[in-house]
Design goal:
single chain, alpha/beta, Rossmann fold, 8 helices, 9 strands, about 15% strand, globular
Length: about 290
């Protein structure tokens, strides 16, 4: 019996890294993206050209599918109209097409920016953190999670919203030693979702088993996600990595995307000289956001 997956946003960075790890004997992987897939096709892949906002295309793409992996959408801050059309409405179109075609399992790409304003010392609990987005992009991903929750409850689907970290072949900064999701572990998350048999909505962290991670893997374990990779083996290659230590309350999950608002507020509300901070405080980390 053929196993069929639909991967939206398949030509993007995450989709391109994930593709080779999804190949299985007898599996068909439909790659939906306006752009052609990067590199040579892998066995079982079929490219469908178009947008997740096209209901007719999505209906055809979802036919006889066992799992939809929805990565399609803008991956960073954009004007609100763009985020509304692609990230929010596009997710609605994907879920509605999946529902109408009888697809029982959907994996939605959410983001750490849904809770980006939280300090890293506030994110380690096993309970699901409510939204505290750092950008309009984070707001759009909170809406994606809400849509997933609705479709799971209303239509008996199994929907997983993964708050994805830094997906790269290897971590390349001190920050990503905490946030890294290896392509192999991303594929393990997909396979865990493919194996789900009971309906419900699950919010999980899409990160690897990093020694320095700021978040809990407990929610992922309940759906069978067990990451195998640890960013720590790359630490020796990263300048300034040092040794693992406790989370810093001055560091936010959203990184620079969250820090911009704190910096703007500080500029608009200067502190009285009597309450100013010492001038020799350490500089903030300015690695790329995730």
């Amino acid at each position: 019996m053929t196993d069929r997956l639909l991967l939206t946003g398949a030509s993007g960075r995450v989709g391109s890294l994930l593709r080779p790890h999804l190949i299985r004997p007898g599996r068909e992987v439909r790659l939906l993206d306006p752009a052609p897939p990067r590199g040579a096709p892998h066995p079982g892949e079929i490219h469908l050209s178009g947008s997740v906002t096209d209901p007719d295309l999505m209906a055809a793409a979802c036919k006889d599918i066992d799992l939809v992996v929805h990565l399609g959408g803008h991956a960073g801050e954009r004007p609100w109209r763009d985020l509304l059309e692609v990230n929010i409405h596009g997710t609605y179109v994907v879920l509605e097409a999946a529902r109408k075609q009888g697809v029982r399992r959907v994996l939605l790409a959410s983001s750490a920016h849904v809770v980006g304003m939280l300090a890293t010392t506030e994110t380690g609990a096993d309970t699901v953190l409510p939204p505290r987005p750092d950008t309009l992009y984070g707001v759009s991903k909170a809406a994606v999670e809400a849509l997933g929750s609705h479709y799971a409850d209303a239509y008996g689907m199994a929907v997983v919203s993964a708050r994805i970290g830094t997906v790269d072949p290897a971590p390349d900064s001190v920050r990503s030693l905490s946030t890294w999701l290896s392509p192999g572990d991303a594929a393990r998350l997909v396979e865990a979702c493919r194996a789900l048999t009971r309906p419900g909505h699950h919010i999980v962290w899409g990160v690897s088993a990093n020694r320095r991670r700021w978040v809990s893997l407990a929610a992922g374990e309940t759906i069978g996600y067990r990451p195998a990779d640890d960013a720590e083996r790359f630490a020796v290659q990263i300048p300034g990595a040092g040794s693992p230590g406790p989370a810093d309350p001055a560091v936010r999950i959203g990184g620079p995307w969250a820090d911009q608002w704190a910096d703007e507020w500080a500029d608009q509300h200067p502190r009285h000289p009597a309450h100013s901070e010492p001038q020799n405080e350490p500089q903030k980390e300015t690695t790329a956001p995730w």
